[in-house]
Design goal:
Layout lengths: L2 H25 L29 H5 L22 E6 L4 H13 L4 E5 L2 H5 L22 H7 L10 E4 L4 H14 L9 E3 L4 H7 L6 H18 L3 E2 L1 E4 L1 H5 L4 H21 L4 H4 L3 E7 L3 H22 L5 H4 L3 E5 L11 H15 L4 E3 L12 H16 L14 H23 L7 H21 L27 H15 L2 H15 L6 H9 L4 H12 L9
Parallel strand pairs: 1-2, 1-9, 2-3, 3-4, 4-5, 6-7, 7-8, 8-9
Helix pairs in contact: 3-5, 6-20, 7-17, 10-12, 10-16, 12-14, 12-16, 14-15, 19-20, 19-21
Length: 556
């Protein structure tokens, strides 16, 4: 905008405020409530070109598939290929979950997303006394190669990509996946998928960690190097802002803390001797899709732009694939309500729309009943149909970045970017993410507290919770996991240990322990062990002896 254009616009705005806005406000004041972003910054009544001062189209936006990728990572975006519809699922035994996967694929799902139970995430077998009450409850139980084989029975792993939400035990689950693929006759270099493998956010917000930070980072960089050489089409990490947002972060904090963690992983890989363009194209991200449509679209666009600049300018990456932030999105579990659960269908639709307008590469839509129980088949189908209707009926997949250029969207994109850059600079000053865990925890806790205060004060309305409340009968027909699954899985493991070559299993564990005490890559040894029917818990117990267990600090 030229100075003359700016003066004209400001004059027109003042005239509008005096002649149109003021009489309207005198007659009818604006409704009470919050007009602000998730971080508390005011949302203006109207945005104009004046709010985009300094915006340079080529530098700040560009075209889809072009640096800085603000408008998307692919030139044609969804006109070429729709996002992967990847519904997160897992419960009970591997065989039960396999039936759910087949159902979802029959309904048009285009990728798999595995939810593991807490024992699997924490490195315990189904027959561990520690695991007894949690086996198969919030995800599928996988203890051995036989469980993994049952999980993917009849599913061709060279034709269906698989995302696994697994962190502390990511290396073991990836090796199990490779081993099962080999049984199907599928070579590792043909596999496509992702392991979440993001341990820093576990320390910050989620809690499914096992080992201290240093050996945990070693396992991550070992996995990077292994996949570079053996599984080149696999995404080696899904750096997650999702769980930070579920813990209560703002949109800007979600971007900032996620990218700060990503910086830490890049630095760790470089310190391990990897070259940036060897591993960076295999990095991926995972973000939350919340209710505030405009802010969420801006958040996704900002994250892409900021990451492109970080990789090119801070780390000197030269491969354009290293600059691309590719991300999976999941609708906000923390926004689901147990009250009037049918309302969640509408919430999920808005959240999914934000993710699509923001340019996601894959998407999970939550089921309406997930605030009450694991989702039923009917609820899962509605959630998947939500994506399909948006893809095929809404028109939003017909053009790349359809909200690009909107004054409000571009202003919020810049605003979130500026907030995120400030946070990243603060984290850098603290020594990076590993040293700034307590700082990020406190920031998220404070944001979560502010949100809850707003809900309780009714300055933030949650339909069916603090307003528009209705008396409802107790929910019925909720999905329940077979209570006998734990006993069946314990018997299955006992039989496995009886049948396997015990000497081969012990030798494999001894080799893992020896390498864990050194610096060689652990993944080939873990792959050898799972092929010898060594269990997840046995491998983790061996690593616990060498690495120790992380002891969290209490943050208030």
């Amino acid at each position: 905008m030229t100075p003359e254009e700016h003066r004209k616009l400001e004059a027109a705005r003042k005239a509008w405020e005096e002649t149109v806005l003021k009489p309207a406000l005198d007659k009818s004041p604006e409704r009470p409530g919050l007009f602000s972003t998730s971080g508390g910054n005011p949302v203006e009544r109207v945005y104009t070109p004046a709010d985009l001062e300094g915006l340079d189209y080529s530098r700040d936006l560009g075209f889809p598939g072009q640096y800085p990728f603000t408008r998307g990572v692919q030139p044609t975006m969804y006109r070429g290929r729709l996002w992967t519809m990847r519904q997160y699922a897992g419960f009970g035994s591997a065989a039960e979950t396999n039936r759910r996967y087949r159902y979802l694929l029959d309904q048009g799902q285009t990728g798999l997303s595995v939810a593991f139970d807490l024992p699997t995430q924490m490195g315990y077998d189904a027959d561990s006394p520690v695991a007894r009450s949690e086996v198969g409850r919030v995800g599928v139980s996988v203890s051995s190669i036989e469980d993994m084989a049952a999980l993917f029975e009849g599913i061709p792993l060279d034709r269906v990509s698989t995302s696994m939400t697994i962190n502390a035990t990511a290396a073991i689950l990836l090796c199990l996946h490779i081993a099962v693929a080999q049984r199907q006759g599928v070579a590792a270099d043909r596999l496509q998928g992702t392991v979440q493998n993001d341990i820093l956010k576990e320390y910050i917000a989620r809690g499914t960690y096992i080992f201290p930070p240093a050996p945990s980072m070693r396992l991550i960089t070992d996995l990077f190097a292994f996949c570079r050489d053996r599984v080149p089409r696999w995404n080696t990490i899904s750096i997650s802002g999702y769980h930070l947002r579920e813990a209560g972060s703002t949109a800007a904090q979600e971007v900032a803390f996620t990218l700060a963690n990503a910086i830490a992983y890049v630095e760790a890989a470089l310190e391990a001797g990897l070259k940036v363009d060897e591993f960076a194209p295999q990095l991926s991200f995972f973000f939350n899709a919340h209710n505030n449509l405009i802010e969420e679209v801006a958040k996704f666009r900002c994250a892409r732009r900021l990451w492109a600049k970080i990789m090119r300018e801070r780390f000197g990456a030269r491969d354009p694939r290293s600059w691309m932030l590719r991300f999976h999105a999941q609708t906000a579990g923390s926004m689901l309500t147990a009250q009037q659960p049918e309302n969640n269908i509408v919430r999920v639709t808005i959240q999914a729309l934000a993710a699509i307008l923001g340019g996601c590469q894959s998407l999970h839509t939550n089921s309406m009943d997930e605030a009450l129980a694991l989702p039923s088949e009917q609820a899962v189908r509605i959630a998947l149909r939500t994506q399909q209707i948006l893809a095929y009926e809404s028109g939003v997949a017909g053009t790349a970045d359809p909200l690009g250029g909107a004054y409000a969207v571009e202003r919020l994109t810049r605003q979130i970017e500026e907030e995120a850059e400030t946070y990243i600079a603060k984290i850098d000053g603290l020594g990076g993410s590993v040293h700034a865990i307590g700082f990020m925890e406190r920031e998220i806790q404070e944001a979560a507290y502010r949100y809850q205060q707003e809900v309780e004060a009714k300055s933030r309305i949650v339909v069916g919770v603090n307003e528009f409340v209705a008396e409802e009968p107790p929910p019925s027909g909720l999905f329940q996991v077979d209570p006998g699954v734990g006993e069946a899985l314990r018997a299955r493991l006992e039989e496995l240990r009886r049948r396997r070559d015990g000497d081969r299993a012990r030798r494999a564990l001894d080799r893992i322990e020896a390498v864990a005490r050194g610096r060689d890559n652990l993944l080939p040894l873990i792959l050898e062990a799972v092929n010898a029917s060594v269990t997840l818990g046995e491998i983790c117990d061996t690593l616990r002896r060498v690495f120790g267990v992380h002891q969290p600090s209490v943050v208030f």
